């Protein structure tokens, strides 16, 4: 089998899905121009060598205003598919990537789409509300979704959103969760923490530093902790590869202008480092405004970390009654809950939460399901 991915090589989730298949199949990658611009030629060669995925190049984003400019990129896709004898064209993240599915007849291969969350829950539906041109763009998305041969979603809420877009033919929608290497997260011993945090208690905000993840809510709530309690903890953020630097600067300003907060911003962490951070955290807080099925939450649960999630409609078979969830995006509510957890005034059911997710989040199981979908179309 030969698979061509349209994916983000900076996304750890995209990489993990692709590398599962590159171990047994021939895999190629094209990326949006902005995503690949962060990579040098040597970076691309190293990626290809380590992951057995050949990077063919970049592609401009689909044009809705100057539609005729899309034809050059369509020809490039057609050439890749013909030259490399591609069997499956798999698109990760719907907005804007799925719009290339409008040219499916020219591409002449099965088109797969994987939604991740924000794309179908927030971004695409907004087009419907932004005037005549927005409605036209929304129509293009609906058409592209309908032309895709198979759609996988990482949460049941995404499935509901995709059903609204499709308006029918729901058999093509499948639940394939992002998944984690469960055994590794459970069995792997914790590494020593970075010296910055050695022997320190801390509250961890593990999500990417992007506006969609709403770190300001957690920072404001942390600032409202009793002075005597707040002074015992560091607030830890992670400046990953995809961080929004302007947003990061705004968060630092918020921290520095709040009541005294000891904080630490770590550079991008690998899986072993994240394991150590989760295992040693006094509390993990996640405050996204929109979300799919957060792998970071699953990883925290598998490490028995105390966890607070935002008031979003997560899949209950993963995040049920044993996981603490806010009722609203209110910093007073969050601060009160943080304080009770740090003071151990409420009972946490971390083992029960861990048991609930373990049987449903194996990446190996989820990718095996996806492989069986591939084989239906070749």
Automatic annotation (TrEMBL):
CDD domains: GT4_PimA-like. It comes from the Bacteria. It comes from Splendidivirga corallicola. PANTHER family: BLL6006 PROTEIN, GLYCOSYLTRANSFERASE WBBK-RELATED. Keywords: Glycosyltransferase, Transferase. Residues 199-348 form the Glycosyl transferase family domain. The lineage of its organism: Bacteria, Pseudomonadati, Bacteroidota, Cytophagia, Cytophagales. It holds the Pfam family Glyco_trans_4_2. The keyword Transferase applies. The keyword Transferase applies. Gene3D superfamilies: Glycogen Phosphorylase B. This is Glycosyltransferase family 4 protein. Its EC number is 2.4.-.-. One of its GO terms (molecular function) is glycosyltransferase activity. SUPFAM superfamilies: UDP-Glycosyltransferase/glycogen phosphorylase. Residues 2-155 form the Glycosyltransferase subfamily 4-like N-terminal domain. It is an enzyme of class 2 (transferase).
């Amino acid at each position: 089998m030969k698979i061509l991915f349209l994916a983000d090589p900076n996304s750890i989730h995209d990489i993990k899905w692709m590398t599962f298949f590159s171990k047994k199949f021939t895999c190629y990658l094209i990326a949006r121009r902005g995503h690949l611009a962060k990579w040098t030629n040597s970076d691309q060669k190293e990626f290809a060598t380590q992951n057995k995925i050949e990077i063919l190049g970049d592609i401009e984003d689909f044009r809705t205003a100057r539609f005729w400019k899309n034809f050059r990129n369509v020809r490039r896709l057609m050439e890749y598919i013909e030259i490399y004898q591609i069997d499956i064209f798999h698109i990760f993240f719907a907005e804007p990537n799925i719009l290339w599915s409008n040219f499916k007849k020219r591409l002449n291969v099965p088109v797969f789409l994987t939604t991740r969350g924000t794309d179908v829950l927030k971004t695409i539906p907004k087009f419907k509300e932004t005037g005549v041109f927005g409605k036209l763009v929304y129509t293009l998305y609906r058409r592209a979704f309908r032309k895709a041969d198979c759609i996988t979603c990482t949460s049941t809420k995404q499935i509901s959103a995709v059903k609204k877009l499709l308006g029918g033919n729901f058999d093509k929608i499948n639940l394939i969760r992002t998944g984690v290497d469960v055994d590794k997260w459970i069995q792997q011993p914790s590494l020593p923490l970075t010296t910055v945090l050695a022997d320190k208690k801390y509250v961890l905000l593990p999500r990417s530093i992007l506006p969609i993840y709403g770190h300001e809510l957690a920072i404001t709530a942390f600032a409202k902790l009793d002075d005597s309690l707040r002074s015992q903890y560091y607030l830890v953020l992670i400046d990953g590869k995809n961080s929004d630097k302007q947003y990061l600067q705004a968060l630092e300003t918020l921290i520095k202008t709040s009541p005294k907060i000891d904080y630490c911003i770590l550079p991008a962490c690998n899986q072993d480092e994240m394991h150590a951070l989760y295992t040693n955290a006094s509390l993990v807080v996640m405050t996204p405004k929109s979300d799919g099925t957060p792998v970071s939450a699953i990883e925290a649960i598998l490490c028995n970390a105390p966890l607070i999630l935002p008031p979003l409609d997560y899949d209950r078979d993963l995040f049920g009654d044993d996981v603490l969830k806010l009722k609203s995006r209110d910093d007073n509510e969050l601060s009160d809950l943080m304080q009770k957890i740090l003071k151990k005034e409420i009972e946490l059911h971390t083992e029960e939460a861990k048991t609930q997710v373990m049987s449903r989040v194996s990446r190996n199981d989820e990718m095996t399901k996806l492989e069986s979908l591939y084989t239906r179309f070749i």
